[in-house]
Amino acid sequence: MDAKTINKFPIRKYLAGRGIHPAKDRGYYGLYHSPLREDRNPSMKVDKRFHCFACQADGDAVDFVSRLFGLPS
What we know:
Blueprint: H1 3-6, H2 11-17, E1 24-25, E2 30-32, E3 44-46, E4 50-52, E5 57-59, H3 61-68
Antiparallel strand pairs: 1-2, 2-3, 3-4, 4-5
């Protein structure tokens, strides 16, 4: 499977499959407690892409999974 195909898979659906749900659901996007770091307040916005406001990480599905598992992107 190539990166273009993987990026068609919604990050929110991937997170739900791992049992991670938004702390605040705004319909089009969700605010999550970031699984990338210790997080007391929801600091990661996820729609088609993700952005962690606390650690300034952002990107597509491949970038997210790479960061989550500590893989080079």
